[in-house]
Amino acid sequence: MPRVPPIEPESATGEVAAVYEDLKMSKWRVPVMYQVLAHHVPVLRCHEAYFNTVMNEGLLDRKLKEKVAYKVAQLNNCAYSSASHRRYAIKCGASEEEMKCAEEMNFDQMSDGEAAALRLAVAMNESGHKVSDRIFRELKMHYSSAEIIELFAVVGLMAFASRIADALGLEAE
Question: Residue 87, CB half-sphere, CA atoms under 13 Å: how many?
């Protein structure tokens, strides 16, 4: 049970109800994290806006971003975020085998670009701030500067979201 009670979609009103409707469009549901964040509407709006910008807009394929998000959640041992982003990745077209490869860092069945993105996720998660020149060169071989920023944003967003989810006691849905 979350440490802060969720505001259920059925009882949401005003701005919270409006954000929930947007969430149903972009996430196909109203995740519990957002139901808890709804107690502070400005934080809810900002979190959703940043999540939407990072995950739903931009240049990179949502499936790739969801695999990276899943990897970061897994590395942070966050059951809530791992389950959510695994489900989103599959909804965006990832197969069970692809998810297993991402989880195990088995690069045999993924593109070099995808492998580079997952290596970035591991590097940023391990150190919190250091990405080797080798990993950065690898990223530059496969991604534009804008796409690299997008990948950094996915990793940062998921590290943040995983910590919030665990601190709030959110359980995997």
Answer: 12
